[in-house]
Structure formats: structure tokens, C-alpha cells
Design the sequence.
């Protein structure tokens, strides 16, 4: 059985400022770096075969910190990118309440498809191994929705640098 440690990236400047990041790179705050260091220290004794990350900077930076004691290179994949929020990207989140969603937001079907593809990738590439993966709030929610066979709204959103363990 493959064990997946699913992690959300550390806190970013845009998280603090309530900006819809979507697929922008993002920048960890000092607190976000500290959160990644806490995960690193807590998981230092785990025997990971791989550390995988979204190819967005905020996740790559979080994964790099966590990977340090394991001497593993971070494998980047666009499968773990955050949902593309289209023209909502870069906007102040409280201002979006009640707005009609534009047509350029990534569909839920596409998001869940990426989540299914990511799970299949981990299972086939790392069978019987322990893998750590750093993603984002909504894609991580999609991964868990696929894994548990639930709707997205039935999965609790992960906090920054939270770790959840899935047995694939």
C-alpha cells in the first residue's frame, strides 16, 4: 500500500491579505516558512521515498523545507496546482461574495480529473512507498474528495501546513 502524506503549503502573503491566489506563484510569509519547518521537524524521522509538489512557488518552497532531512529532490507536477480561478485571480476574497462566477474558472470536473490523475500517478509510480505531497487548499480538497468518494463540500478544507495521511 502506498501512503500519501498530503500537505497544504505554508501561509502566504496573499493568504494573509485574503487575495485569491489561484495559479499565481505566491510567496511564503515568515510564519509560512516557520510552519513548513514545524512539519519538517515533525516528519523528519519518516522514511519518504519521494517529495512531490505543485509547480507553484509557494508549494515548492514549502516542500523544499520539508524535504531537507530526507535529502530528496522535490518532484514538481502541474497536477497539484491550485484551481485556476480565472478572472477572480488576484481579487480580494470578501469582495467576491455574491458575484456570479465567470466562465474562465477551472471547472470542478477538470479539478477532480486532475486529482484522480494525481492519485493514479502516485500509486503507479511509488507502489508500496511513503510519499509526501505539497499542494493547495482546493486541489488537496479535490484529492480527498476523490479518495473518500465524497463531494467537495463534504471535505474539510486544510489549514496552512496541515498534514493528512491517505492510504492509497
Sequence:
Amino acid at each position: 500500500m502506498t501512503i500519501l502524506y498530503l500537505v497544504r503549503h505554508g501561509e502566504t502573503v496573499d493568504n494573509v491579505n485574503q487575495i485569491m491566489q489561484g495559479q499565481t506563484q505566491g510567496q511564503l510569509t515568515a510564519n509560512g516558512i516557520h510552519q513548513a519547518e514545524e512539519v519538517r521537524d515533525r516528519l523528519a524521522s519518516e522514511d519518504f521515498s519521494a517529495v512531490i509538489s505543485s509547480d507553484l512557488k509557494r508549494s515548492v518552497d514549502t516542500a523544499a523545507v520539508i524535504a531537507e532531512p530526507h535529502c530528496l529532490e522535490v518532484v514538481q507536477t502541474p497536477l497539484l496546482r491550485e484551481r485556476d480561478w480565472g478572472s477572480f485571480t488576484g481579487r480580494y476574497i470578501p469582495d467576491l461574495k455574491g458575484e456570479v462566477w465567470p466562465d474562465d474558472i477551472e471547472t470542478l470536473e477538470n479539478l477532480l480529473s486532475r486529482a484522480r490523475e494525481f492519485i493514479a500517478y502516485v500509486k503507479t509510480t511509488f507502489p508500496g512507498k511513503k510519499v509526501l505531497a505539497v499542494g493547495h487548499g482546493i486541489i488537496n480538497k479535490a484529492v480527498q474528495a476523490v479518495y473518500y468518494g465524497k463531494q467537495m463540500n463534504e471535505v474539510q478544507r486544510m489549514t496552512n501546513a496541515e498534514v493528512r495521511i491517505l492510504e492509497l
In short: The first strand starts at residue 3 and ends at 8. The helical segments are 13-16, 30-42, 57-67, 108-125, 137-148.
